[in-house]
């Protein structure tokens, strides 16, 4: 047989072996494995636990900043590699005997392997948690002046975090073993790890992928000192506000954070990371759908709503996280509360209904529409596929691809482990929910059971979409409405239930996603389970301890009006949660949306989402060959308002421009560069931005050094009149009175 024939036969054999139905997976994930490589070693335990706890403490504190910072897992990927290789060189290889047994162990089982590296990073990633219970404790302390039982909160939060892992076991067969559930985001990590461990020779006049990754990360870090410390105002520069300093209209039109963002731009690479639109991972059609949705939202519907003065819109700020009364003042929830912090209907009648800023009110409509559109889209376009997939999976008739066959060499996690975890954590939730974080935050066990059932019903379709397309559903809004209707008027009880609804699904998704990544990289499932559960248990305690210490030691944290200039401790996420506690907990959807609220018309958005998907579906049947119709994805388009505010127009436009540059120009005209460096560029941007933010906080801001004293120090966009009312019947504040229209 000739050389060409041999090569052809080899390729045919490889094609038969690599039978994964997803092309991106075939091109990215290796189909080789060595099951004899040790994974959960002593090195893995030490590095995974230590760095996981460091990650837990820094993440908890970093989320209280104006622009949240954290140490992404890619940072630990780089840090762990040289440390692991160093330990492999210096640790003794001799075997030690466990006392009283014949079992032996060694401190050094051999070279630091790719699998060991991956498991350590997965364990560290379990430290990347942001328990909502901690943030609700902050709200109770800062905004209500109440004491909390920290010990009960720790137990409640830990059991809530762990419950997600237990419930994930019920879905692992459908979402992990199924080759069509490919979890697109996991491929980035596959590329990064293979880059770090696969040797590559540098060609003359070029750099290796590892060199490119290091150079790009360092460049982002060095450049990040400018907008991060020397010139914070560079995060959002609004030209119209700088030119017309006393014009309310100019400030509303030009504000890049809480306005239309016309003429606003950023010099901060961090802005590209904060938003809904990922310019490196999302395909071009998704980027265009999201951006078209944002344009429809911000530049069509919002102006119509605002200038027609629906629900006193012109009395209120154009865009804000806060809620307001009918007079345009911040809503004083204490004026509608009883002494036990529950809703008082008589006080409510004598005060005011609750109102949102225009951007937020319209945003709720888009969110409702995207949810109904997403569910119907899945049913129409993927319903038959999912039905047959479920029959195959749970009928044990599912055909395994190459990765499934390779994973058969490893023992799966017994179902009893998941059952024990679920039962134990449910008992913990029952007991601590009954005792309460304080005397006003208690819920009966029936609400815990109802929450679990709702989580299962809503999380499964969400994860199916996420695993097959990379796009999830805004299911959180449904749980908020259901509990708000069932448990109306009880602010702090709903806080507890909302934290439960947030934590459990996020851990189900996190666990399933990392299981799929481990599935691709052939990590033993039992060792992954043990490592993740152990780190999560300790990380939750450390996270809450570090965060609570910061809340008690940083003066005026989460109070922007009282913070010094340039201080990052504005807590936008905490303030948004405080607002949500009033909307969904105290007043509830009865008094805000349907049937008695000023925004009852927003319920129509559910039907709008259904109509749009049906119309698009009928068009695709009428014109099956239309490429244009194939690029329209209604649920993604309607997601163009999700997260705004706090995500501003400057975030959307900067991400979109980078996305067009990357996924159209570079992809079309420099495809080799794109295929080689795209995912590495995304990782370098994340690591550089995160490290510079962490460096500034650790070395400068912790010493109360916020940068040089000049106008560029303001971590704002110099649009102080952006929140001023334009209704002539409202008495302006002194700040707004100085402006003109």
From TrEMBL:
Keyword Transmembrane helix carried by entry: yes
Name of a matching Pfam family: OPT
GO MF terms, alphabetically ordered: oligopeptide transmembrane transporter activity
InterPro entries named among the record's database cross-references: Oligpept_transpt (IPR004648), OPT (IPR004813)
Main location: membrane
Transmembrane parts of this sequence: 44-63, 69-88, 151-174, 180-196, 212-245, 257-275, 287-307, 361-380, 415-435, 447-467, 529-546, 599-619, 677-700
Keyword line: Membrane, Peptide transport, Protein transport, Transmembrane, Transmembrane helix, Transport
GO biological process per UniProt: protein transport
Keyword Membrane: yes
Subcellular location: Membrane
GO cellular component: membrane
Topology relative to the membrane: Multi-pass membrane protein
Family affiliation: Belongs to the oligopeptide OPT transporter (TC 2.A.67.1) family.
PANTHER family: ISP4 LIKE PROTEIN (PTHR22601)
The name this protein goes by in its record: Oligopeptide transporter
